[in-house]
Amino acid sequence: MKKILILTAIIGALSAAAPSFGTDLAGQPVKAKAPPLPVAAPIIDWSGYYIGVNGGWGTSHNCWDFNGVAPEGCHNSTGGTIGGQIGYRWHIFNMVYGIEGQGNWADFSGSNVSTAFPANAVGTTTDAFGLLTGHIGYAFNAVLLYGKGGAAVTSNTYHLNSVASRTELANSNDVRWGGVLGAGAEVSLTPNWSAGVEYNHLFMQRSNLSFTGFLGTDRAHQDVDLITARLNYKFGSPFAK
């Protein structure tokens, strides 16, 4: 009987203490986990060697005259192009400077009936071109805008065709030098890869053409417009700045 009374007293004491214990727990502050610190976006460094491929569309505008005095008309030689480029860039603050060499295969062709000799048609085919340019640009971190300028060279074949029979009467080949101005935009895709689009205008020198079996010479003037998409791979440590 004594043990039962002692046990009853203990249960009563615990029951009385329970509300007070719950109140003490409720009053304790809850420790919340601190939010993670924001991670800064990586700073893109455009410096380094790069190599890439390009492809797109071109138009060569060609005007001929006979012996420099008799106009024979103009035509556009249009078609596709594909090639590659290699270069190096220096990234100084937000400015980006570079030098690049580019070589392309081309398939630009076109013709017109000669206004001086209506029985004949004159045509131009451009099968290759090359560029050696300096670049200057401004980097908005992962986006690079730039202009370029330098030297250009084109490889051309000139055709003299019969309008009636549509057969070739003669042809002449030359390699022509000139200048180039252009502009482009490039976006960094991954630490090493970037893609962009570029426009170039080639100002080519006049060329004197001679055709076997025909007297006199033709003088040809050529300008070329190019729009290409580009994909580059940059060597070295990316995003390190």
What is the compact description of this entry?
With 241 residues, the protein is mainly beta. Helices cover 10% and strands 65% of the residues.
Structural class: mainly beta
Quickly count the domains.
1
Could you name the ranges where pLDDT drops below 50 across 5 or more consecutive residues? 1-25
User: Largest sheet at a glance?
Assistant: 8 strands, antiparallel, barrel
Q: How large is the count of helical segments? A: 1
Architecture per CATH nomenclature, i.e. the level-2 architecture:
Beta Barrel
Radius of gyration: 37 Å
Beta-sheet strand percentage?
over 45%
Name the helicity range: 10-25%
Question: N-to-C SSE series?
Answer: HEEEEEEEE
- Coarse shape: elongated
> What is the CATH topology?
Porin
CATH class: Mainly Beta
**Strand tally:** 8
Structure description:
With 241 residues, the protein is mainly β. It has a single domain (48-63, 72-207, 217-234), classed as Porin. The chain has one helix at 2-26; strands at 48-66, 70-92, 95-113, 120-140, 143-162, 168-188, 193-209, 218-234. Strands 1-2-3-4-5-6-7-8 form an 8-stranded antiparallel β-barrel. The longest helix has 25 residues, at 2-26. The relative contact order is 0.19. The model is unreliable at 1-25 (pLDDT under 50).
